[in-house]
Amino acid sequence: MTDSTSSVSHLDLDESKKTFLDANELILNMGPQHPATHGVLRVILRLDGEKVLGLECVIGYLHRGVEKIAEHRTYTMFNPYVDRMDYVAAVSNGLGYCEAVEKLLNIEAPPRADYIRVILTELNRLASHQLWLGTHALDIGAMTPLFYTFRDREEILKIFERYCGARLTTHAFRIGGCQYETYEGFEKDVKKFVAFVAPKIDEYEELLTTNRIWVERTKNVGTISAKDCIAYGVTGPVLRASGVKWDIRKAQPYAAYGKFDFEVPTGQNGDTYDRYLVRMAEMRQSLRIIQQAIDGIPEGPIMAKVSKVMKPPVGEIYHSIEAPKGELGYFIVSDGSTQPYRVRVRPPSFVNLQALDLMCRGQLVADVIAVIGTLDIVLGEVDR
Amino acid sequence: MPSFITSYLDKNIHVTPGQYGSPFWALVYILVVFGGVSLAVVCMNWLERKILAHMQIRLGPMRVGPHGLLQPIADAIKLILKEDIIPEGADRFVFWIAPMIILLAVFSVYTVVPFGPTHAITDMNIGILFMLGVSSLGVLGIVMAGWASNSHYPLIGALRSSAQMVSYEVAMGLAVISAVVMTSLNAEGTGTLSMIGIVQAQYAQHVWFIFKFFPLGLIAFFIFAVAMVAETNRAPFDLPEAESELTAGFHTEYSGLRWSLFMLGEYAAMIAVSSIAITLWLGGWMRPFPNLLSGPTWDLAFSFFPALTFFALAGMTFYSTMRMPRHSYFRVQTIGLGAFGAVFAVIGLILLLPGVNGRVQDIYWFIFKIAVFMYLYIWYRGTFPRYRFDQLMKVGWKILLPMGIGVLMLTGIVALRTELWDFMHEALRRLVHV
Amino acid sequence: MAPITTIHYLVVAAALFVLGVIGVLTRRNVVIVLMSVELILNAVNLNLVAFSRIWGLHGQVFAIFVITDAAAEAAVGLGILIAFFRNKETVNVDEIDLLKW
Amino acid sequence: MEPVATTFFFYLLSGLAILSGVLVITRKNPVHSALALILTLLCLAGLYLMLYAPFVAGVQIILYVGGIMVLFLFVIMLVNLERSQKEKQFNQQWVPGILAAVALGALFVTIYIKGDALFVRPEMRFPEAENTQQVGQMLYSNYMFPFEIASLLLLVAIIGAVVMAKKRI
Questions:
Q1: Partner C contacted by A22 (CB < 8 A)
Q2: Number of domains, chain B
Q3: In chain B, which residues have their Cβ closer than 8 Å to the Cβ of D57?
Q4: Contact at 8 Å (CB) between A176 and A312?
Q5: CATH number of D1-81: 1.20.950.20, 1.20.120.1200, 3.50.50.60, 3.30.499.10?
Q6: In a domain, B343, yes or no
Q7: Topology given in CATH for the domain delimited by A66-383
């Protein structure tokens, strides 16, 4: 994995001019303009016929320097920027950042704010998983699930829109709590949504889980062992599908997660099919959490006392949350001024993408597409 | 009228114009069939988009004409007016001729498709062999298109496509042969390869071959039904055109009119292979139960079906017209939809005329069966993910091919069971009395 | 014009045969040499089928055997060609005239 | 039914066949050669139809055009070298080669002229509609043994081709 294109030269791209039979190896350039690379990922494949001998990702086509921008913004002003990293799960990004700064400032959000945060974050996890399912299925050739998932994702986006006025890059939370009180009928909407979407998840599973072609395309494809997962720092559903029961919501509970009863679904084989099953199960667990949260949401203030000008004490902090794609961490260094000295983001997509080479070796070209889909990467987050 | 026109219209002639040797009527049939197929492809285009859209909770084309009915025409105009790009370094002649070869191969198949006992351009005594052979020429066009484009993705797409078509042709041929074996179960003991002869054999044996020697006919039909989807490169076997892997396969570099020729060829090929399946296993032009429910009363009852279909279509259209929003903005669309309904109704009325309704029977049932197959094609596309290439080959060579060989052998054994029994009896008798 | 008799077909077959022989003897590219062999086989087939018009159907049956033979020959020939190409990176007959490489 | 315009179609098909035969042996690009050969084969299939051999014509289209030529195109695409097209296309003995072939052609013509009594013989009429049945009948009676040998040959060819072409077995 490399950020620069300069190291590509050792692959000797001139070889691609040879025909299939001259050399045992063929270099195929997939992307950045390719329908199945989920944005602008460029993958250079080293092939033996259709078998992948190795691959190299070239990233940075969507680099916007988010971390650098943070050094010239106040803590409050930087908050909306994090939404633009993983734009599919903007709420999770905001939650991680707000909680990190709160930890640095040594304040705590009030319980009602925590509950609202949990509800919105879990809704966003659902939305992210639905988008993943739709595009993943489309990559493997099933067209229809995409439209089903987008239909249901729309309901989540509607709730977001009513809550904070934005659908995608929500900027839902503020440092110290939430800016907005829930709108009238929020609880009703969320309850209605939970009842609405539970049978829809069954519907997706009906289309895919026992579909022979789907099973053949995903079973034993892109297998990664628990040991390799840990060695590569892979987190999220990919890690859990390999059998490691690691979920930060359980391991280091943040927000109000400690109060809810939910399970961490795991797989055994660590292949694409298991990752699919794990994510489907996670969607159901998210619904469980939302149901408990909406039933037990307390009354009270939604904002802690935060001064207008934030000047955290000198120090550094690392805080991570369980984003839909894995562990999303923020490392913030404060020099005592109003602006952070350094912000470093640990994006789950970037770290998970490292494992692509390992997962694709020995597989076929068509599997590379399936594996890119199952890693659930968002290039905005990889490149930042 | 000159005799070369009238002579074929003699009431005593019950053969196709090709067999009778009437070039004029053969030409008329050729024009009608080719025009009809092109029109069917245009309709298929609209129907596929609408049906797929409704399966996927979308509306599909809605803007051009009422319910997007004029969309295919708009598309055709767009494609004709588009610039025809030939990529740098392409082999211009081969690039230019490849879509023509595909079209030529596909449309040649229609020369022997029997829409009725006399409604075919001609009937050959090697009919089914001709159909298989000519439809296999389409591979050449695909290979040429992929090679001439001078680009990676089309080349890989073409190699995949030709490998796929060549390997599924084997299973397809075995399934076809097992149906041909069934035609030989008559008094003379000789089968036939002629398309019309095969349908007549089904009539004579009082059974569609899909139900013959249950479940052997069904299995052979199943093999053919899978192989024909693979032959036409449709989902779930659409690897050569797999968007997510090869952008558009062998026709990536094509644009405008030439690209539309590929599409025309693909849809025409779907109709062609469906008509092979219908002829071989589903009784061709015959209406359901031609022997069981025979007699003038049943004939009369079934003769209303074509008109009823069109009345149903007209009814649906009128119902949609009623439901159009009553707003001046939609006035033209509403009137257009009503006009469509009126056209359907008028066609239905014409089909009720006594001279007409008897003659369109065969054609109606054949087209009805094709329509069912076309719906299945769209349904597959909306439901299945795509196979991987090695899995596709596995299905072709390790599942369908052994199944085909097994079915063929079993069909032969069952067809010759009395002879086999006699032979073994005789052999045993001799062995005992030695 | 005179009616078409067997001898007409024989002349066409002879012309194709000669073309095939010229191809085999003069071309360097192995693929084209193999295609010329196909041309020769087809000329023979045309001969056989033309004779079957006057001597009975045996010629047609034999033509089918020749087609089968051609399929086998093409498969093995192209297999050898691919093996050569992989080792010598050439498709010219006069460069692969050694028995070992 | 009597055939229509036999003479015209004979000259059309045989002319096209010979013309594309010339193209096969003269084109630089093997793909063009292969396409010309396909045209020759299709013309020959037409000639077989005119000779009342529809089954052979069908087999010719399925096997030759749909099978063998696709194999050829496949291999050409795999081994197609830009380099080889810029090289000399004909080998050094092309003059003796052409002379020998022309001598062979002259031999044919001489035989046809000298022995025309052998070839000009009244045509037998076989019912065209039963051609397939008759060929099948013969294949499974008189020619049963060659038929089995042919299938064995194909098996050998399959194994041979796989052994030759596969990189690692």
A1: yes
A2: 1
A3: 126
A4: no
A5: 1.20.120.1200
A6: no
A7: Cytochrome-c3 Hydrogenase; chain B (1.10.645)
Beta pairing class for A26-30 and A42-48: antiparallel
Helix, strand or coil, per DSSP, at residue A331:
strand
What residue ranges define each of the domains in chain C, with the CATH number in brackets? 28-95 (1.10.287.3510)
Helix segments in chain A, DSSP class H: 66-70, 75-83, 90-105, 111-140, 144-164, 186-208, 212-218, 226-232, 237-241, 248-251, 272-295, 348-353, 356-360, 365-375, 379-383
Q: What is the amino acid identity at position A170?
A: T
Q: How far apart are the first and last CA of chain B?
A: 76
Mutate: best of C31, C80, C89, partner A, most A CBs <10 A: C89
- Please tell me the distance in Å from B20's CA to the nearest CA on chain D: 7
pLDDT on residue D3: 59
pLDDT at D54 exceeding the cut of 50: yes
Q: In which residue ranges of chain C is pLDDT below 50?
A: none
Inter-residue contact A61 to A40 (CB < 8 Å): yes
In this predicted complex, what is the ipTM?
A: 0.80
pLDDT at B342 (0 to 100): 92
pLDDT more than 70, % of chain B: 96
Written in H, E and C, the secondary structure of D97-131 is HHHHHHHHHHHHHHHHHHCHHHHCCCCCCCCHHHH
Q: Which of residues 92-151 of A touch C (CB under 8 A)?
A: none
Per-domain boundaries in chain A: 6-58, 66-383
User: CA of C99 to nearest chain D CA: how many angstroms apart?
Assistant: 15
Under 8 Å between Cβ of C24 and D101: no
pLDDT for B298-319, tens place per residue?
Answer: 877 888 888 888 899 999 989 9
